């Protein structure tokens, strides 16, 4: 059993007193790989690419999260993707790098509510307390590789590849209902 | 569950994020066609398979994606250390001090 997820028709997956899980409208996502002196890329992007894995930087609508020692994911509104690609292309001679548009590869679930952190623990082997507000991590949710963004104490976003999205949505939806039942029983 | 320190993420994380990737420090010959069949067999197939400390590769596959090396005891599963790919093999005696 899994929920049918369409990237083009965002839906609410679960909405209980414990936690709400909703699929976000499509966003622009670029995967950036580069090594060496990042100054030219920083200039092109108008932000300083973070170099510590798990951290992010934001400038206006553009954010950059460091996922690996030479890997970042850039997120922005869909309409800004072409402009960011062009800006990076202008810096190619100064620092050769690779940019891949992965906007359509994934969907993003927004997870909010008083039990949001607990919901993450049903599938994520990490100690959630080790992910402070602002942290971004590629990790595991059940059997799917995901990118997990912690936006607040009770707010997460999870980027999931399309082929896993139905399964992950189903698992999150089940968790939403179970945690709400727990809350109701606890009064 | 084992906890493994990723030398790139600089964090100690659950084993579920990692994949084992065989013996470390197996160096591909610079000129494969200059090798004898026995040397090539040695490179491809022959491994130490020790009972005890083992230098081995791991990959933080559900994390930063990087391959790195570890020194792990195959009996106790204890990780003595992990280090970045390309760094020299650490000396085992540095880690056995308290156990000896
Ligand atoms: Zn790592």
Using brief descriptors, characterize the structure shown.
heterodimer, A: alpha+beta, Gyrase A, domain 2, Alpha-Beta Plaits, 26% helix, B: 100 residues, mainly beta, Folate-binding fold, two-stranded antiparallel ribbon, 13% helix, globular, binds zinc ion
Describe this structure in words.
The complex is a heterodimer of chains A (187) and B (100). Chain A has 187 residues and is an alpha+beta fold. Chain A folds into two domains: 11-26 and 105-186, Gyrase A, domain 2 (2-Layer Sandwich); 28-103, Alpha-Beta Plaits (2-Layer Sandwich), CATH 3.30.70. Chain A has four helices and eleven strands, in the order βββαβββαββαβββα. In chain A, strands 1-2-8-11-10-9 form a six-stranded antiparallel beta sheet. In chain A, a hairpin with a 2-residue loop joins β9 and β10 (144-152). The longest helix of chain A is centred in the last third of the chain and has 25 residues, at 162-186. Chain A is elongated. The relative contact order of chain A is 0.22. Chain B is mainly beta and 100 residues long. Chain B has helices spanning 37-45, 93-96; strands at 3-6, 11-14, 19-23, 53-59, 67-73, 79-84. In chain B, the strands form two sheets. In chain B, strands 3-4-5-6 form a four-stranded antiparallel beta sheet, with no helix packed on it. Chain B has a two-stranded antiparallel ribbon with strand order 1-2. The longest helix of chain B is centred in the middle third of the chain and has 9 residues, at 37-45. The model of chain B has no long low-confidence stretch (mean pLDDT 94). The chains are: A alpha+beta (187), B mainly beta (100). Bound molecules: zinc ion. Zinc ion (ZN) is lined by residues 6, 8-9, 60, 63-64, 66 of chain B.
